[in-house]
Amino acid sequence: MIPATLIIVNPSFIWQIVQGKGIGSILWDSTRTIPDTINEYPLFSFLWGDVHPHVIGIFNQVLLIFLLVYALLRFRNMDIPGRILLILVCGLSLGSMPPVNTWDVLVYGPVTLITGLVIWSGAKSPCTPADSRRRPLLLLKRPVETALSGLSHMRVRLRMGLKALTGIVFEAPWSFLLIVPLSAVICYLPYYLQMETMGIQGAGFVHTPTVPADFLLVHGFFILIMVVYLARDMGKRPLFLIVPLIVALAGYPAAAIAFVPLVYLLAGGRRTPSGILAILGLCIVILCEFFYLKDNMGDTYYRMNTVFKLYLPAWLLMGSSSLAMLSSMISKRVPRGYAPVWAEKVAIAAVSIILVITPLAVPLDPPYRGGTLDGLAYLETAHPGDAAAIDFIRSLPGVNGVVEAEGGDYSYFGRVSSFSGIPTVIGWPFHEYMWRGNTGHWYGTRQADVRTMYEDPSMTAGLMRQYGMTHIYVGDPERERYHVRVPGDDLIQVYDRGGVRIYALAD
Questions:
Q1: Boundaries of every domain in the chain
Q2: pTM recorded for the entire structure
């Protein structure tokens, strides 16, 4: 069910169609439904082609969700090698989240711990693999017997002792809970020791809760499926609806909507993977109604990043769980043997094919048309001069840094570094400031130094060496932004074509 969540649109998408908007507006407006926030869903992110951490992190989220569900279903009955492999892969997936997108680990760290607790609480006794040679008591007995045979068998005793200890640890029902987080840290320990972030400055209380209609336009599909799935429980125990009623009267009507399926999932003791994932996803969107993480987005967009970055994991968790519930409801109403055996395989293949062809089939607005997965292709028509120059500089040896114009965020500025992967002095300044702070007052200094490099030839080479730049790029954005006066005596022109000039710093 997880792949299906990647091609589903939210109810707001349908609402935009009803209003008669064009495809570009439908996609964009459906992800800006809740005012002053962003509520992207995976299909939009893939079509938009924004190679942002929240997009890259989706693939690892899907992997970890699969691994956690597999652990919930199989861990207690796995043998020792299988448990070790599953624990290490889960640790690797969880540990890689902060380097890719730190927001993800805020969700999946607790999710992994909860999964471990469920596995632990569900084990009546430590699981014993079928292979008796791995049973811990026997493994402990062998080293003792070997020790009695003499010191010449020390190596054998040590080996068997370590094997016995491994068996004891990984047969314990708490092994997943403790070892997965530990292995996640160990895998990326050098990164964690050097990580510095200035983006989050604490938590605050939400003072403008989401309007219920907007909330349903984002999460309505999933919540509707959950409510239908739980309808029988709701009919038997209607008094539980007092909980969401109290939440609504307290001034949080959107959270109250999510509380409706949540209270019945909790009260029903549903410990199936779909039930657990649904509970976790609902808890995320409910928390976003009460709390937000403080950053530098200002008073208007104070909860934008919290909703933006936490709604995507919630989408994957609620989407996969609600679709599993939908499948369960359908299977109960469709007689066994009614559909051919191959129908399920065909359905999975169809979803996979749709995932591949959808980005090519959607008629996007110019200059993004062309039916390609190449994120650089639009440059050929929109900015042909830059397309050729960037292709040149990517193939040029010895390019350690390139100076280009700084022109604010959410603009075409920063395109050379973005499309080539070559470092520059400063890219989108507010993004840099928001996540790195302004230690050393670099924010204004770097902006001023870039201007100086373009406008004062006597300072260009010195500042380039100071920042480790080997080349300086002059295109239309640079000429619009500055009074360009390069080259100086220490610069050599290495490219001049299509309105773009590139200069290299002389040795």
A1: 2-119+199-347, 132-170, 379-505
A2: 0.78
